[in-house]
Design brief:
296 residues, TIM Barrel, nine-stranded parallel beta sheet, 11 helices, Xyl_isomerase-like_sf, EC 4.2.1.44
Length: 296
């Protein structure tokens, strides 16, 4: 597939903090996302999980389903248990024509706990890299056999968030596992998304384009904030409205023939950051970055 521009419904309504945009109907998200110029949406908690219901909704808005988040527990579950647990989600993505599944290991995660700083997230158990890598590779091999490749999402407040942890994950897993590069999460974790892209470009199969307001991130770190409080304070924004070097990131993607979705995923308080305004700004900036890099 060629590069396409998508968006996550977090711009309108937040999965981790449902009070944000809780009253916003799904139809509003889809209508405004299409109006802003996007070709597809990732799943959110307001989307029906039955493809027979979801397909006509997206078709009416002339949108595609990009992918959807899956919470993995392979540090606790066997591969067989994870395969059983993923079935309904996998079948939905297959039926909707998705090529990737967003996967994040959430054992012990703290990103959904507003009262817990991200600094209190559990460290990855170093003695388990080889075992976990083999387990995750086997699980990824299974979903790939079903036509959907895992895209591992490094995420603040989880066991794999830093540049070094992403490197270790890639080193201990096979090519069956793809990497979701999230520019905002990597920047928040103190890493360099450009360098991560350079090292693992051939494994990147999905990209989340979240920008960072550097001054607010500095304050969030100084206050030892939770992930959700950083969201409420405005640490995240759409591409081109923060400090991430998107031209450099996209040059790496172009040089390595990236083909897939570029997805705006920028959690903000919709009562402060007007969703249509920011969705439009995000699309226009993302389109310009991608066009200038030769991705479009």
């Amino acid at each position: 597939m060629s590069v396409k521009l998508g968006i996550n419904p977090l711009t309108w309504t937040n999965d981790d903090l449902p009070s944000l945009g809780g009253d916003t109907p799904l139809a509003t998200c889809l209508t405004e996302g299409k109006q802003a110029g996007f070709a597809g949406f990732e799943l959110g908690h307001k989307f029906p999980r039955d493809p027979e219901l979801l397909k006509p909704i997206l078709q009416r808005h002339e949108l595609e389903l990009v992918s959807g988040w899956y919470s993995g527990y392979l540090l606790e579950r066997s591969v067989e248990e994870e395969i059983e647990a993923v079935q309904s989600h996998l079948q939905l993505l297959k039926a909707m024509g998705c090529k990737v599944m967003v996967f994040c290991e959430v054992t012990g995660c703290v990103h959904g706990d507003q009262g817990k700083p991200v600094s209190e997230r559990p460290p990855f158990p170093a003695e388990r890299w080889e075992e976990y890598g083999a387990r995750l590779t086997e699980f990824a091999r299974y979903t790939l056999s079903q036509g959907v490749q895992l895209a591992y999402h490094h995420h603040m407040g989880t066991v794999i968030e830093t540049e070094a942890e992403v490197d270790a994950l890639m080193q201990h897993t096979g090519p069956e596992l793809g990497l979701l590069l999230d520019t905002g999460h990597m920047t928040y974790a103190g890493g360099d998304p450009v360098e991560v892209a350079k090292r693992w470009a051939r494994r990147i199969n999905h990209v989340h384009c979240k920008d960072i307001r550097a001054n607010i991130l500095k304050e969030a770190r100084n206050r030892n904030s939770s992930f959700l409080n950083a969201v409420l304070d405005g640490a995240f924004t759409v591409p081109g409205d923060g400090c991430v070097d998107y031209p450099a990131v996209f040059k790496v993607l172009k040089d390595n023939d990236y083909q897939g979705w570029l997805v705006v995923e920028a959690e903000q308080d919709p009562s402060v950051a007007h969703p249509l305004t920011y969705a439009t700004l995000g699309h226009n900036n993302l389109h310009a970055f991608a066009r200038n890099a030769g991705l479009l």
